[in-house]
Model the fold of this input.
Amino acid sequence: MKNALTVDLEDWYHICDAGEYSEPARWNNYESRIIRNTEKILRLLKTHNAKATFFVLGYIAAKEPRLISDVKAEGHEIATHGFCHRRVFELTEREFEHDVSESIDVISSITNEPVLGFRAPEWSIRKETPWALSTLRKLGIVYDSSMVPLTGMGDRSFPVYPYKFNTPYGDIWEFPLTTTRLFWENLPFSGGLPLRIAPYFYVVSKIKRMNRQGHQAMVYIHPWEFDGEQPKIDLPLSRRFMHYFNIKAAPGKIEGLLRHFKFAPVGSVLGLS
Done:
C-alpha cells in the first residue's frame, strides 16, 4: 500500500501568528533558505524513488519559479498552500478566495497544469469556516488536506480518513491529518512536532497498523525542518516549542520512513491522477 507524502513548501519565517514575521510586506527583508532546504528533500526523495505532493506557497512560487519547475521536473505533484500563509479562520470568505486564486494563478503559470490540491496553513479549516470547501471547489480544487479531527485545533467530528464532501460546485475529497485514537481523543504522529517527539518505532507501528486495516497514512514535512542552522525567531514559549523542538530528528525519521514504506502524491493515493 502506498501512503501519501507531502511537503509544505514554505521558508523558515513563514510562521502564523509570529508578529512582524507574519507580515508579507516584510518577507523580502529576510534571508531566503528555501532553495537549499528543498534541494535536500529532493535528493532524499530521489534516493528512495519516492514521489510527493508539494503544497507550494504562492509567495514562494512567485519568488522562485525555477524551484517549482525543478520540483515538477522530478515528477512530484504541485498543489497550493495559499499565497500569504494566512490561516483560513483569520480570513473572510472573499479574502480566502482571493488568496487561493492568486496562488493558483502563479503556480499554474509555472507548471502549465491545473492546480488540484490545497492545504491551509496550520490545518486551519474549522467549523466556523463552512464556506471553505465550496470556495476551493469553485476554484477548481478537487482535494483538500486541511482538516484535523482533534479537539481545539480542528474538530473531533471531522473525518479521520479520506472522505468525499458534496459542495454546490461538485464533490471535493478531504485527506485529513493522520491521527491515532488515544482514549477519547485523536492524536497526530506523522509529521511536524508530533513526528519529531514520537519514538520512531511507534510511528512505524501505527502506520503499519493503519495499512493492515486498509487505510493510507499521510506524512508531512517542511523544508525548514531540514535546516538546523536557520535563524531563530523569538516566539512565545508554546510556539517556540512547536516550531523548533527536536528539529534535528526530522531528517533521520523521514529517511527511515522512506525505507520502511512506499509513498506517492496525494492525488495518486486518492486515485485522482
User: Anything to note?
Assistant: The chain has one domain: 2-269. The radius of gyration is 17 Å.
